[in-house]
DNA sequence: ATGAAAGCGCTAACAC
DNA sequence: GTGTTAGCGCTTTCAT
């Protein structure tokens, strides 16, 4: 292992150039020579150092991965998909996480670029307004965005707008009128915006009044009192909550349970991500699913195509289909006891669904 | 960015050697010169190429990570912990996953070694009988194992034996006698063995008869019929299931639900891993918790200490404390209806707890 | 305090 | 078909 191409050359009795050729272009070298070189390689357990190759300006076979976090299975699954193909094709992955921090995004990209990665697969907070990506377009390595929902850049994602409105329409079809959207505090992302836009769209289309997303602190053990108050408000309480991601939905479910609210009898819940563990909850979490492993694989393939220079005319943004998982957390409003403790049944649910200022 | 140390030297009017010193040993260079060089660096947006440094035989500031999978949050969390410290300390991470396959473990280690990583953090299937690790001990890069429960090698883990027996004792304290351990089919790992040994120990200590672990196919959508038959067998059915990991526990819970078995009324469940999402299940999953983020961080620190050469006398294996989460999936046997459908109450539960051949 | 030069492991002209 | 040589970007003696 510590042996170099020089050692092999000496051992085989040829020059290092011949050894190099024997490795990289076997057909250009005399079969007899080839055999001897190969024997020497065997004997010395020689493996070409990627470092030498990389420095020489060759292909580094290195791909940089930039993700917000691995704590969210969405990204871990994407990475899994990427890794499958990378391993298959002999590429190495350099991983950096950003915690949704733009500073760290910049740092990661610079580090990776300095490392001469051949390409970058990344998920950034906001793809549209990101100066870094313009820089990459200009002279950085090739990249593909993952889960960033933008038409302007090379990306693989679901149609968040459409997915969200599909989900909300489904809630409406189940008789819900007062539907509130919940989002994480860090949710200034393009996809969060798209999801809220989709929610808004579906609401308006049904003649209902959409509300701004209610922000939830992700890390808190319990729901903030004002949030809880809002959710349980006798007059205005929503009958369904659309959570901008599944982790958030789970946190909210726990919070509600702590507040003695029953899901779905008192309130229905729809998540977003389709995390498989959501199905194991009781009741199973209804959710809009994204094919994360596939998104990772597609991002890889798109990146490779760009590197090879194929499909230069392929559409920038690839949209993969989302799915709708109708789990047990959604109750038809007809089946829902309209009255909660101390609250009389009222027809106003059917009125306009206005939620809050 | 595409500028090299040469460009900087030219721009500043000094030799590349001086620029190099200005970067790596600022105190050895004239303050005025230093200022000029720094200005040039700014102007050209120069970042030293890691590649050049690495090739020169210097520190690569590269650490290899080898994990079975990222689909299991246990490893994703460990990686998260590692990444935190790596980013802080300016190291880059090269990641490879193995899917518990020894071939791929070998390949990953060789790839990483060729890449001149300064160190390796890995989780292998079986640390004790692994020739690769002996090779690493001999001349590989320094490494630290994570979650591999062995005393013979540098590692960070919980005491799986003790953790398992703690858990099983807890079940026994709740009145359970027929306790069966379930393991994944891929579970020929050292930690799975330790967990089963811990189970066996606790059972015997209580005068009960332990059974071999029942293997469950992880990926199947439903529990295999023979497994289900075994779990529901009128005469011998266990009152509690100890699952060797949480993901498995969740799959089993779903399978049981499909078979109309109630948890914990009909059967109690204890998992292993302490996945935070387990708390969100209903009922919340009882589990033995491992501090994954901390394990990742500790592995990092141990590796760094080894690289620097400190603590050469530190104990090889670091054991972190596990926790016991007593969730809703465990019922005291006294409260359990002893009779299930078509089965009369019987005192034999109190007898010897024998489970199966 | 600074520069010249060697060399890390490899590939790619360019000779022969 | 094979060898010679230059150089990728950097650090590090060894001189000056």
Automatic annotation (TrEMBL), chains A, B:
<dbReference type="Pfam" id="PF00356">
    <property type="entry name" value="LacI"/>
</dbReference>
<dbReference type="InterPro" id="IPR001761">
    <property type="entry name" value="Peripla_BP/Lac1_sug-bd_dom"/>
</dbReference>
<protein>
    <submittedName>
        <fullName>Substrate-binding domain-containing protein</fullName>
    </submittedName>
</protein>
<feature type="domain" description="HTH lacI-type">
    <location>
        <begin position="3"/>
        <end position="57"/>
    </location>
</feature>
<dbReference type="InterPro" id="IPR000843">
    <property type="entry name" value="HTH_LacI"/>
</dbReference>
<dbReference type="Pfam" id="PF00532">
    <property type="entry name" value="Peripla_BP_1"/>
</dbReference>
<dbReference type="InterPro" id="IPR028082">
    <property type="entry name" value="Peripla_BP_I"/>
</dbReference>
<keyword id="KW-0805">Transcription regulation</keyword>
<keyword id="KW-0804">Transcription</keyword>
<keyword id="KW-0238">DNA-binding</keyword>
<dbReference type="InterPro" id="IPR010982">
    <property type="entry name" value="Lambda_DNA-bd_dom_sf"/>
</dbReference>
